[in-house]
Amino acid sequence: MDDFHYKIESGQGALWCEGVSLDDLADEVQTPAYVYSQATLEGHYDRLSQAFAPLDPLICFSVKSCPNTSVCRVLTQRGSGLDLVSGGELYRALKTGVNPAKCVYAGVGKRPDEITSALEAGVGWLNVESSQECALIGQLAEQLGQPCRAALRVNPDIQTETHQHTATGHRGTKFGVQLDQVEAFFETYGSSPWCKLSGIHLHIGSPILQVEPYVMAVQKGIELMDRLRSKGYIIDMFDLGGGFGADYQSGQAPEATVYAEAIVPLLESRVAEGLQVVFEPGRSIAANAGVLLLTVLYVKQSDDHTFLICDGGMNLMIRPALYDAFHFVWPTRVTASHIPPARTEKVQLDGLSPVNVVGPICETGDIIAKDRALPQVQAGDRLAVFGAGAYGMSMASQYNSQPLPPEVLVDGQKAKVVRRRETYADLLAMEV
Ligand code: LLP
What we know:
Elements: E1 4-9, E2 12-17, E3 20-21, H1 22-29, E4 33-37, H2 38-51, E5 58-62, H3 69-76, E6 81-84, H4 87-96, E7 103-105, H5 112-121, E8 125-128, H6 131-144, E9 148-155, E10 177-178, H7 182-189, E11 195-201, H8 212-230, E12 237-239, H9 256-272, E13 276-279, H10 283-286, E14 290-302, E15 305-310, H11 319-323, E16 329-331, E17 333-335, E18 353-358, E19 367-374, E20 382-385, E21 407-411, E22 414-419, H12 424-428
Parallel strand pairs: 4-21, 5-6, 5-13, 6-7, 7-8, 8-9, 9-10, 9-11, 11-12, 12-13, 15-18
Antiparallel strand pairs: 1-2, 2-3, 2-17, 4-14, 14-15, 14-20, 16-20, 18-19, 21-22
Helix pairs in contact: 2-9, 3-4, 5-6, 8-9
Bound molecules: ligand LLP.
Ligand LLP binds next to helix 10.
């Protein structure tokens, strides 16, 4: 599943990332710190691209999930394109050296200056979210004298079993154009020579641990493309968005091959006719490629609750507070009998006791893990928050004036700080 594993050293279990001991690394860079595994990033990317090889898709890594340019570059050097949603992400993308033609530029609220930058950079497609935006893209492209390709984001009206904050493919969200309004949309905007609508984009939400919603979305997408083609529009790109699951718990997410077995047969003949398929995976590549290392500052007993108060919390990993998300947490050093057999909510081992893993932030909701059975932990011990590579650092904040932690990229036996720890001076750097 990934390249984070416990090794037994003098009778004790110690957490390693590839060929690097995370305790040694934490001695060096201190905590809190994000650590990413290059082998895991590459492995997930490769599995996805191999599973979908019959479609020869363009895989655009979703930068919002883990925007560090060194992480993105690992993927772009492997052939990945990038999925961008802001001028800031475009700026990052260009720094990675990615071919802009391998980028999709999405986002429900694109500013005029962002659209202009995307046009000037020559991104492959702009994913259009509304009629006003489509008209504006056309105007700006004409002003620049530079036509662009665009895909219309369609809301396929599919209910998915995911948190209400991350479900996007049902009616009533701000995303895309309703399926039954697409043909009228094309009648108005489909023949612009500047904003050339030639693709369909969907993103049904994330994470989606079932295959069926994708099958339904693809079927609806194909029917729609056929209707548009029968009216004379040329549709040569189909972007299925992201949202494939990740193993926050061992074995929780379908393998890339399982998604592919269901999706490939539906699209294979279309690809043979010239359709370009695009995916925008974020978490399925990055989530299990990262851990957040924390140090336990205090072990506090309060009534019948034990709190492990750590040096990072919702400021660095907001997903549990925001979505009730599960992240496996385990000490970086344990007795050999406490090496976790699997990353699950209920680990079946003797000698564990229930704790709440919390951070230093002045909010009751500052929780990383609640009622979790863990081995005995003392102040000074370190914990790893697993599955933290996606939407961890990218959603971290300086709340409570906590400087952002470093990001470290491990490649085999090498560990490189790819973003340094912020200082207190950094906290004030923008204040004038
Ligand atoms: N494409 C579009 C249009 C998206 O909106 C997203 C995610 C993706 C691709 C990538 O989805 P992924 O493969 O990473 O699931 N902060 C939340 C997730 C929000 C996702 C926003 N859009 C979380 O921590 O779970």
